[in-house]
Amino acid sequence: MAERLRLGGMALRNGLLVHGPTHWAAAVRTAAGEVKVASGSKPRLRATERLPGVRGVVRLAEALGVIPLVKRALPEAQLPFQDSRVLATMGGAAVAGTLVKRVADRRGGAAAGEAVAAGLSLAPALLALRGGELAAYHGVEHKAIAAYEQGEPDAAGAPKEHDRCGSHLVAPMIASNLAGTVLLRRAVERPGPLAGGAVALASLAAAVEVFAWSERHAETRLARALRRPGHDIQRLVGTREPDERQLEVGRAALAEILRAEGVAAPSAP
């Protein structure tokens, strides 16, 4: 089997965004029922590719940098958090998390406060997945990419959980953030916002490196254990089996990213 492109993606509320090595492509279903596609080049910062801890954060920043390009080329695209209820929940979770950490800090339970705040930070994502088609398009994302990787011409029978889903970042990021907070409190009596931000950034970098290690050693028992929480998140709340109309949008996104990257689509055996 010919070597496949490494693809990533992000579910939209009405479609799918796919990342290739050098391009992005998106397909959405408009309010009128039409499937529209767009694609373009990705911003890249190649100087950081060999720097552990930095490369993962930069890749995430590059992925976020694609979003304005998608909205400009495809205004009909609805982002995961493009909902007034979700935005209100994000604000409420941020305020509640700050209050919880302050109270916990005064009582000498900084780590417990961070754990509760981390739990609260998941509320907007859970709300976004509960309503509309986002969870189904998350399933489309995984199915479309898995089918392409396996050389299958259609995604309908592919699994809706995937080993490279961002859900696998959640557990290591929370764990590393808690560990970093404990170490920071031991080193500094009253750390400021800058120190807290540095811990959060370092936690993200550590989580990305754990993610990458798990992919490189996918068949080991430790890698399977590290991926277990992410798979459970996908199975229970993160994804939903898509219908044929949603799968059609996924096919359009996959075809567009392969066209943009100059790669032939898998053919039927």
Overview of the molecule:
The protein is an alpha+beta fold and 269 residues long. It has one domain (8-256). The chain has 9 helices and 4 strands. A 4-stranded antiparallel beta sheet has the order 1-2-3-4, with helices on both faces. Helix 2 runs antiparallel to helix 3, helix 6 crosses helix 7 and helix 7 crosses helix 8. The longest helix is centred in the last third of the chain and has 24 residues, at 193-216. The termini are close together. The mean pLDDT is 83.
Break the fold down into its secondary structure elements and pairings:
Elements: E1 8-12, E2 15-19, E3 23-29, E4 35-41, H1 55-73, H2 84-106, H3 110-121, H4 123-130, H5 134-149, H6 170-187, H7 193-216, H8 221-238, H9 244-261
Antiparallel strand pairs: 1-2, 2-3, 3-4
Helix pairs in contact: 2-3, 2-4, 3-6, 5-9, 6-7, 7-8
Compact overview of the structure:
This protein has nine helices and four strands. By secondary structure, it is an alpha+beta fold.
Radius of gyration: 20 Å
The low-confidence runs, each spanning 5 or more residues with pLDDT under 50, are: none
Strand line-up across the major sheet? 1-2-3-4
What's the total number of strands? 4
CA-CA gap between termini:
11 Å
**Tally of individual domains:** 1
Mean pLDDT: 83
Structural class: alpha+beta
